[in-house]
Amino acid sequence: MGPTFRRLPKRDGTLIQVPSMPWSSAPTPPDNFTAPCCGQTITSTQNSVIQGALTVWQWQYCDCMREALAVAEETRQQMEQNTIRRERWQGQQRALDALFPQWCQSAKVPHQTLDHFVANQEMRGLMARLRAWLDAVNQKEGFMLTGRVGNGKTHLVRGIAHEVRAQYRTVLYTSVPYLLEHLRGPTGADMEMVLKAMIQADVVVWDDLGAEKPTEWTLDRLYLLLDARYEAEKPVLVTSNGSPAQLEQRLGARIVSRLMEMGPVWEVPGVDYRVLLAQKRLVAG
């Protein structure tokens, strides 16, 4: 009596029939059968298990079946590794989101993906650069997005953060004014804890750099955090309404110099979408 089969893919995706069990426990040798994939005659050999108390018949697979079974085992191991990786990532990401809850508290974040960003013709070059950055295997560099108020910089950088999180890579997202306020005062976050998070996160996002009040205290904190990221050789993604020259006047040369070394500056073209929306509402009213 022959075996029952299951269909498994080979490396080229071809589905072939493979016995559902690698053995038969029949008291007599099971019938030989012809492999549907290659026409080879599949026989069985006798094996004893549990110190001879049980006799089974082991199928002698053809090369096609062995390949399909190897692919199935590789897939199983990959799924197991992905599960472990996802669970580890979830714990690390939850800790970052608890330390900087801006990402989870915003009702806009779930909708601010790259797929939901409406890019016109002049934005296509920038979108290609952002996609290329995402596809890079080992990013040590980040980038800075600059441009006028309301042209989509925050949406874009949050869209990048969504993609990074989907790859089970940790993201520390914060606006710079929120970051500094988070550190300020007796109830603020512990600087050492924030430094550790800045170093450990796979990707750090600083939104709206230049919107903070540039006091000696804020500039000192920004430099310490940025320098820690610089020394870790990990990417930081920055958005700002100011150009590098304007930021240097506001924040000083040493902060901007660090940023320039840590990645390129990409200008986001386009108009203020908020103004356009307001104009449309006036016309509609």
- List the total number of helices: 10
CATH homology superfamily name of the largest domain: P-loop containing nucleotide triphosphate hydrolases
Beta-strand percent range: 15-25%
Name the CATH architecture of the largest domain.
3-Layer(aba) Sandwich
Rounded mean pLDDT is 89
Estimate the global geometry from the Cα principal axes: elongated
Give a quick account of the main beta sheet: strands, pairing sense, barrel closure.
Answer: 5 strands, parallel
Kindly report how far apart the N and C termini lie. Answer: 79 Å
SSE order, one letter for each helix or strand: EEEEEEEHHHEHEHHEHEHHEH
Domain count: the total is 2
Share in helix: 40-55%
Strand order of the largest sheet: 9-10-11-8-12
Rg value? 29 Å
Instruction: Work out the number of β strands.
Output: 12
> What structural category characterises the helix and strand content?
alpha/beta
CATH class of the largest domain: Alpha Beta
Which ranges are low-confidence, i.e. pLDDT below 50, for 5 or more consecutive residues?
275-279
CATH topology value of the largest domain: Rossmann fold
What can you see in these coordinates?
The protein is of the alpha/beta class and 285 residues long. The protein has 2 domains: 5-67, no CATH class; 100-284, P-loop containing nucleotide triphosphate hydrolases (Rossmann fold). The protein is 46% helix and 18% strand. The chain has 10 helices and 12 strands. The strands form 4 sheets. The chain has a 5-stranded parallel β-sheet with strand order 9-10-11-8-12. A hairpin with a 5-residue loop joins strand 1 and strand 2. Helix 7 runs parallel beside helix 9 (253-261) and helix 8 crosses helix 9. The longest helix is centred in the first third of the chain and has 37 residues, at 63-99. The termini are far apart. The model is unreliable at 275-279 (pLDDT under 50). It holds the Pfam family IstB_IS21. Residues 139-261 form the AAA+ ATPase domain. It comes from Sulfobacillus benefaciens. This is AAA+ ATPase domain-containing protein.
